[in-house]
Sequence to fold (319 residues):
Amino acid sequence: MDSLEVSGAYGATVKAFFGIIDQGNTAIIEVAETSGFKSIKGPLRSPRESITKGLGELIMHGITAGVKHFIICLGGSATVDGGLGMLQELGLACYDRSEKLLQANACNFHEVVRLDITALRELTMNLQFTVLCDVENKLLGSQGAATVFGPQKGASEQDVIALEKFLTQFDTLTEKALNKSMAQVIGGGAAGGLGAAFHTYLEAKMEKGAAYFCELTGFGGFLEKADLLITGEGSIDEQSLEGKAPVVVAQLALDRNIPVIGLAGGIPLSISPDLQRYFSMLLAIGNKPVALEEAISHTKANLTRTATQIANLLCTSNK
Fold:
């Protein structure tokens, strides 16, 4: 495990941890480390102000160190910039009508009229990217990055409209530069559009994240010695059924007749049979109604308290 100081979701510096395996040839990067909620100090702001610059900085650090294969874990991001910040760090150039080079973002992208991929291609042409993604949402539309995930990251109704317009323009200019669209990528809407950026600009291979991770780590083998599995995520809901980690590991446990407890910051008001069948118990960890930013700040305490209560119950049942 190593770390690097990079730009966080709102630009403030954050220490991002990453893994190096395969004798230094492969880097494992969790997007949340560079541009996730952990990088935010203070209240949530509009995701229009968020950037993935730090992810690009971390990838560039890996390239300089000789890494040839990047495994990128999407999820937990606080950004909806379509990967624009990351791509610019890796050489994508954005020009306005006067052919002036811009440091583009979601707020000023309306000034961009041309994208130049020359430097980006030269830098990344011999690299391999594998993207781990647990959702199938595309970049645009009613199930896209702005509409579905924007509100989770603090976007107002007006922000969602503006972000959809920005991402649409980004896709239009991408088609002109690459002769291919970001909009039809399965999983392209993940992590605020990073899925689409990696697949379209960096020719990344898209993999189901949780399943890939379980195979890579031999997770099923560890379950052979388990009597109970406790898993968790920020939210366990209907989207979890699309292949998110809690459901994937729960299925592996159920295949071995191991009961599963799921813990989450939020669960549905009404749990569907399709979701419930994976969990013997599904619990939200919050202890009272609070604003999202306060709930995030209390995650450790809430999780510890809930886990302690589960342990107390298990101890009682075993007496």
Q: What stands out?
A: The chain has 13 helices and twelve strands. Residues 212 and 218 are 10 Å apart (CA to CA).
